[in-house]
Specification:
Enzyme class: hydrolase
Pathway: Amino-acid biosynthesis; L-histidine biosynthesis; L-histidine from 5-phospho-alpha-D-ribose 1-diphosphate: step 8/9
Protein name: Histidinol-phosphatase
Helix content: 25-40%
Number of domains: 2
CATH architecture of the largest domain: 2-Layer Sandwich
Keywords: Amino-acid biosynthesis, Histidine biosynthesis, Hydrolase, Magnesium, Metal-binding
Catalytic activity: L-histidinol phosphate + H2O = L-histidinol + phosphate
Number of helices: 7
Number of strands: 15
Strand order of the largest sheet: 4-3-5-6-7-8-9-10
């Protein structure tokens, strides 16, 4: 594979995130049409999800037409460069439709081995987290700063997040709560923003199940560039989704796997 041009990818990722901000903020805390994608359950999608992904796809068609695209709302487009843009226009649609500013836009670039770039953007707060080639940075209301996951070796001092208290199946719920009982603080409901907090050095663990590739590729790119670790519950690659554990340090990651790998 040809050498990756990281500056060009970063420039494009920021352009996509800028376009996504406009599309998502247009409908946030405004009258909103919500459709359900799931029979027998609730998997919401809004016009903001669709408009945001279309805006990013249109920009990629202009800036990088030969790259592949995998998006939550409009599926897969094959490319010829070996690079695929993985797009989640609104991660946390339930939060978005509820008016809480904890949803985000997820943008990643994958090669054959997984993410080489990740970007998490929270348009309403104006925070952006990006990681690529071993460098992770954020920008927001407090200015710009380097991202660095915190080093903590005691699970008993850790803060752990997940989006839903149910986590996934009853077995996955059991695994999470067994682990969480051994942490100092457990919090819920942050969607992708929890991964940004981990990369920022604020928390120690994020554990989820039932994820899709577009849910986790961008967080992997940001967290790994900030010095953290993201794997599945067995310690293997997580970029295809499923059961995921993100940890700020090797010690916390190993401690979490002692509980999760049994399931």
């Amino acid at each position: 594979m040809d050498q990756i041009d990281y500056p060009a990818l970063i420039q494009t990722a920021n352009a996509l995130a800028d376009a996504a901000r406009k599309a998502t903020l247009r409908h946030f805390r405004a009258e909103l049409t919500v459709d359900n994608k799931l029979d027998g359950g609730f998997d919401p999608v809004t016009q903001a999800d669709r408009e945001c992904e279309v805006a990013m796809r249109d920009l990629l068609a202009e800036l990088r037409p030969d790259d592949g695209i995998l998006g939550e709302e409009f599926g897969n487009k094959e490319g010829t460069t070996g690079l695929t843009w993985v797009l989640d226009p609104i991660d946390g649609t339930r939060a978005y439709m509820s008016g809480t500013p904890t949803w985000g836009v997820l943008i990643a670039v994958n090669n054959a081995f997984g993410p080489v770039l990740g970007l998490i953007d929270q348009p309403y707060i104006g925070e952006r987290f990006i990681g690529a080639n071993g460098v992770a940075q954020m920008s927001g209301p407090h200015g710009s700063a380097q991202l660095k996951a915190r080093r903590r070796d005691k699970l008993s001092e850790a803060t752990i997040f997940t989006t839903f208290p149910e986590v996934g199946s009853p077995e996955e719920q059991k695994a999470f709560h067994e682990l969480a009982r051994n942490c100092r603080l457990t919090r819920y409901g942050m969607d992708c923003y929890a991964y940004a907090l981990l990369a920022s050095g604020q928390i120690d663990l994020v554990v989820e199940a039932g994820l899709q590739s577009y849910d986790i590729c961008a967080p992997i790119g940001v967290i790994e560039a900030a010095g953290g670790i993201v794997t599945n519950w067995k310690g293997g690659p997580a970029h295809d989704g499923g059961r995921v554990v993100a940890a700020a340090s090797p010690e916390i990651h190993a401690a979490a796997l002692e509980y999760l790998s049994k399931y």
